[in-house]
Amino acid sequence: MTPTEIRSATIARLAIAFAVVLAANPAITARAAGDAAAGRALAFKNCVKCHGADGKGDGPAVAAEHISPPPGDWTDKEDMSEHPDVFLRNIIEQGGAAMDKSARMPAFGKKLTPAQVDDLIAYIRTFSQ
Ligand code: HEC
Protein backbone atom coordinates (compact mmCIF):
# COMPACT_ATOMS: atom_id res chain seq x y z
CA MET A 1 0.00 0.00 0.00
CA THR A 2 1.18 3.54 -0.73
CA PRO A 3 1.18 6.05 2.15
CA THR A 4 -1.96 7.62 0.65
CA GLU A 5 -3.73 4.26 0.56
CA ILE A 6 -2.71 3.57 4.16
CA ARG A 7 -4.02 6.97 5.22
CA SER A 8 -7.41 6.51 3.56
CA ALA A 9 -7.74 2.98 4.96
CA THR A 10 -7.03 4.37 8.43
CA ILE A 11 -9.60 7.14 7.99
CA ALA A 12 -12.19 4.59 6.83
CA ARG A 13 -11.47 2.39 9.86
CA LEU A 14 -11.77 5.39 12.22
CA ALA A 15 -15.08 6.40 10.62
CA ILE A 16 -16.46 2.90 11.13
CA ALA A 17 -15.25 2.83 14.75
CA PHE A 18 -16.88 6.23 15.37
CA ALA A 19 -20.17 5.06 13.85
CA VAL A 20 -20.13 1.95 16.06
CA VAL A 21 -19.54 4.06 19.19
CA LEU A 22 -22.39 6.40 18.23
CA ALA A 23 -24.80 3.55 17.54
CA ALA A 24 -23.92 1.84 20.82
CA ASN A 25 -24.33 4.95 22.96
CA PRO A 26 -27.86 6.29 23.32
CA ALA A 27 -26.57 9.25 25.35
CA ILE A 28 -24.70 10.54 22.27
CA THR A 29 -27.38 9.93 19.68
CA ALA A 30 -30.69 11.74 20.05
CA ARG A 31 -33.23 9.77 22.04
CA ALA A 32 -36.44 8.89 20.27
CA ALA A 33 -39.18 11.37 21.11
CA GLY A 34 -41.34 10.37 24.05
CA ASP A 35 -44.88 9.02 23.84
CA ALA A 36 -47.32 11.70 25.02
CA ALA A 37 -50.13 9.20 25.69
CA ALA A 38 -47.90 7.15 27.97
CA GLY A 39 -46.76 10.42 29.57
CA ARG A 40 -50.37 11.39 30.26
CA ALA A 41 -50.95 8.15 32.16
CA LEU A 42 -47.76 8.74 34.18
CA ALA A 43 -48.78 12.33 34.90
CA PHE A 44 -52.20 11.29 36.15
CA LYS A 45 -50.49 8.96 38.57
CA ASN A 46 -47.67 11.24 39.72
CA CYS A 47 -48.17 14.89 38.77
CA VAL A 48 -51.76 16.11 38.36
CA LYS A 49 -52.44 16.54 42.07
CA CYS A 50 -50.12 19.56 41.83
CA HIS A 51 -49.90 20.38 38.12
CA GLY A 52 -53.62 19.90 37.44
CA ALA A 53 -55.33 17.73 34.82
CA ASP A 54 -55.23 20.71 32.44
CA GLY A 55 -51.53 21.46 33.11
CA LYS A 56 -52.26 24.91 34.50
CA GLY A 57 -50.49 24.29 37.81
CA ASP A 58 -53.71 24.35 39.83
CA GLY A 59 -54.08 20.76 41.02
CA PRO A 60 -56.00 20.14 44.26
CA ALA A 61 -52.82 19.72 46.36
CA VAL A 62 -51.73 23.31 45.60
CA ALA A 63 -54.50 24.80 47.74
CA ALA A 64 -54.79 21.87 50.16
CA GLU A 65 -51.06 21.78 50.94
CA HIS A 66 -50.45 25.54 50.57
CA ILE A 67 -47.91 25.09 47.78
CA SER A 68 -46.44 28.49 47.06
CA PRO A 69 -45.16 29.40 44.55
CA PRO A 70 -47.54 27.11 42.65
CA PRO A 71 -46.34 24.99 39.70
CA GLY A 72 -45.99 26.84 36.39
CA ASP A 73 -48.64 26.93 33.67
CA TRP A 74 -47.80 24.39 30.96
CA THR A 75 -50.32 26.03 28.60
CA ASP A 76 -48.31 29.29 28.64
CA LYS A 77 -46.51 29.06 25.29
CA GLU A 78 -44.14 31.93 25.96
CA ASP A 79 -43.09 30.59 29.35
CA MET A 80 -42.71 27.02 28.13
CA SER A 81 -40.65 28.08 25.10
CA GLU A 82 -38.07 29.37 27.60
CA HIS A 83 -37.72 25.88 29.13
CA PRO A 84 -35.57 23.60 26.96
CA ASP A 85 -36.15 19.84 27.26
CA VAL A 86 -32.99 19.50 29.34
CA PHE A 87 -34.48 21.82 32.00
CA LEU A 88 -37.72 19.82 32.09
CA ARG A 89 -35.72 16.59 32.37
CA ASN A 90 -33.50 17.93 35.14
CA ILE A 91 -36.32 19.30 37.27
CA ILE A 92 -38.37 16.09 36.85
CA GLU A 93 -35.41 13.83 37.68
CA GLN A 94 -33.68 15.95 40.35
CA GLY A 95 -36.57 17.95 41.81
CA GLY A 96 -37.11 21.67 42.28
CA ALA A 97 -34.49 22.25 45.00
CA ALA A 98 -31.63 20.97 42.80
CA MET A 99 -32.67 23.51 40.15
CA ASP A 100 -32.94 26.47 42.55
CA LYS A 101 -36.72 26.18 42.34
CA SER A 102 -39.32 25.27 44.93
CA ALA A 103 -38.47 22.16 46.94
CA ARG A 104 -42.18 21.29 46.76
CA MET A 105 -41.43 19.89 43.27
CA PRO A 106 -40.30 16.31 44.10
CA ALA A 107 -37.43 14.42 42.41
CA PHE A 108 -38.60 11.47 40.30
CA GLY A 109 -35.20 10.25 39.06
CA LYS A 110 -35.32 7.12 41.22
CA LYS A 111 -38.97 6.38 40.50
CA LEU A 112 -39.11 6.90 36.73
CA THR A 113 -36.89 5.61 33.90
CA PRO A 114 -35.29 8.05 31.41
CA ALA A 115 -37.79 6.80 28.79
CA GLN A 116 -40.70 7.58 31.12
CA VAL A 117 -39.31 11.09 31.62
CA ASP A 118 -39.21 11.44 27.80
CA ASP A 119 -42.89 10.43 27.76
CA LEU A 120 -43.70 13.06 30.39
CA ILE A 121 -41.82 15.76 28.48
CA ALA A 122 -43.76 14.86 25.31
CA TYR A 123 -47.01 15.10 27.32
CA ILE A 124 -46.06 18.45 28.91
CA ARG A 125 -45.28 19.87 25.44
CA THR A 126 -48.78 18.97 24.15
CA PHE A 127 -50.22 21.81 26.31
CA SER A 128 -48.25 24.52 24.49
CA GLN A 129 -48.49 23.27 20.91
C1 HEC B 1 -46.28 18.01 45.43
C2 HEC B 1 -46.53 18.81 44.25
C3 HEC B 1 -45.88 18.43 42.93
C4 HEC B 1 -45.89 17.21 42.30
C5 HEC B 1 -46.53 15.92 42.76
C6 HEC B 1 -45.19 17.41 41.04
N1 HEC B 1 -44.77 18.71 40.93
FE1 HEC B 1 -43.76 19.52 39.37
N2 HEC B 1 -43.65 21.30 40.34
C7 HEC B 1 -44.23 21.57 41.56
C8 HEC B 1 -43.98 22.96 41.92
C9 HEC B 1 -44.44 23.66 43.18
C10 HEC B 1 -43.22 23.51 40.86
C11 HEC B 1 -42.74 24.96 40.72
C12 HEC B 1 -41.32 25.12 41.19
C13 HEC B 1 -40.92 26.58 41.13
O1 HEC B 1 -41.24 27.26 40.14
O2 HEC B 1 -40.26 27.02 42.07
C14 HEC B 1 -43.05 22.43 39.88
C15 HEC B 1 -42.35 22.59 38.69
C16 HEC B 1 -42.31 21.65 37.70
C17 HEC B 1 -41.74 21.86 36.38
C18 HEC B 1 -41.09 23.15 35.87
C19 HEC B 1 -42.10 23.98 35.10
C20 HEC B 1 -43.23 24.38 35.98
O3 HEC B 1 -44.31 23.80 35.83
O4 HEC B 1 -43.03 25.26 36.86
C21 HEC B 1 -41.92 20.70 35.69
C22 HEC B 1 -41.53 20.43 34.25
C23 HEC B 1 -42.57 19.76 36.57
N3 HEC B 1 -42.77 20.36 37.78
C24 HEC B 1 -42.91 18.47 36.21
C25 HEC B 1 -43.53 17.57 37.07
C26 HEC B 1 -43.85 16.22 36.70
C27 HEC B 1 -43.60 15.63 35.32
C28 HEC B 1 -44.40 15.64 37.79
C29 HEC B 1 -44.86 14.21 37.94
C30 HEC B 1 -43.92 13.15 37.54
C31 HEC B 1 -44.46 16.64 38.84
N4 HEC B 1 -43.92 17.79 38.36
C32 HEC B 1 -44.99 16.43 40.10
C33 HEC B 1 -44.95 20.69 42.35
C34 HEC B 1 -45.18 19.37 42.06
Describe the structure in your own words.
The structure is a single chain. With 129 residues, the chain is mostly helical. The protein has 2 domains: 1-30; 36-126, Orthogonal Bundle (Cytochrome Bc1 Complex, Chain D, domain 2), CATH 1.10.760. The protein is built from 7 helices and no strands. The chain has helices at residues 3-24, 36-46, 48-51, 60-64, 77-81, 85-94, 114-126. Helix 2 packs across helix 7. The longest helix has 22 residues, at 3-24. The radius of gyration is 21 Å and the shape is elongated. It starts with a helix and ends with a helix. The mean pLDDT is 88. Bound molecules: heme C (HEC). Heme C (HEC) binds at residues 43, 46-47, 49-51, 57, 61, 67, 69-72, 88, 91-92, 96, 101-102, 104-106, 108, 120, 124.
What's a concise summary of this model?
With 129 residues, this protein is mostly helical.
Keywords:
129 residues, mainly alpha, Cytochrome Bc1 Complex, Chain D, domain 2, 2 domains, 54% helix, elongated, binds heme C
Number of discrete helical segments: 7
Helix content: 40-55%
Bound molecules: heme C
CATH superfamily name of the largest domain? Cytochrome c-like domain
Indicate the CATH architecture of the largest domain.
Orthogonal Bundle
What is the total domain count?
A: 2
Beta-strand proportion: under 5%
Structural class comes to: mainly alpha
What name is given to the CATH topology of the largest domain? Cytochrome Bc1 Complex, Chain D, domain 2
Radius of gyration: 21 Å
Q: What general form does the structure show?
A: elongated
Uncertain residue ranges: none
Order of helices and strands: HHHHHHH
Distance between the termini: 58 Å
Rounded mean pLDDT score: 88
- The counted number of beta strands is 0
What kind of sheet is the major sheet?
none
Indicate the CATH class of the largest domain.
Answer: Mainly Alpha
